[in-house]
Design a protein that fits this description.
alpha/beta; Alkaline Phosphatase, subunit A; 9-stranded mixed sheet; 12 helices; 9 strands; about 20% strand
Amino acid sequence: MKKTIFILLDGCGFDVATENLGFLEHLVQEGQGGKYKILGELPSSSRPIYETLLTGLSVFSHGIVNNSTVRRSKEISVFDLCVDSGLKTAASAYYWISELYVRAPFDPDNDRIRLQSESAINYGIYYYEDIYPDSHVFNDAEFLRKNCSPDFLFIHSMNLDDSGHHSGCHSKEHHMTALKVNELMATFMPKWLNAGYQVIVTADHGMSEMGLHGGNTEVQRIVPLYLFSERVRKGSFCESTISQLLIAPLLCDLLGIEKSPKMKNLEDLGVDLFEK
């Protein structure tokens, strides 16, 4: 087992990441991590893809078909697998994550901060406004890391999605938001890497020029994957796209736990992520 941090940058398309996440790009260039290009599942909408990322299942299979499907997940998530293996989990995330893996519907009075929960997410700090600053999300996560010592920490920022909806993927506002995320990465990631954490960074979907997502275009579906672990291959491997279904079994592999029976085998997804 090795502690792992999973960062989900909501609404961060591949090109936006490449142009603005200079610290992550620097780490890849310095031989400290790997970069891949992911073709996201359909529909390219948030709540369905959250469930896909954390269970390894297609939307058709898990049944969270749109953002209005408000219910607890019925599938086995990475959070569940961690708890079943005796690991501690934590999340600094949008409230839809709480609805999927803690309880639904979300009650701000009782659910915003849940510590020592018996749910699949043991320690959680959840926000319910899309404009909740990413800086707060990362600092909430750092509080959980320092005080709760989770083995699996999920960090989910929303400001890129919010700026994309308001201004579109090519706007100055959207790219400025990405640059702010880059500053946060440069602030926190050296601490995490130096402390021995593995870090995986990706997105659920991208954003169109009109500020929309959900459909079947490259700008909405193609997102980055950055991997930082002693075990992964180092360098940029973006000549072709790989499946978003690999994220959940990849997390299980990094954490040293068994994947669920419904998750695909990494070797069957046609990508070699690890050093020989």
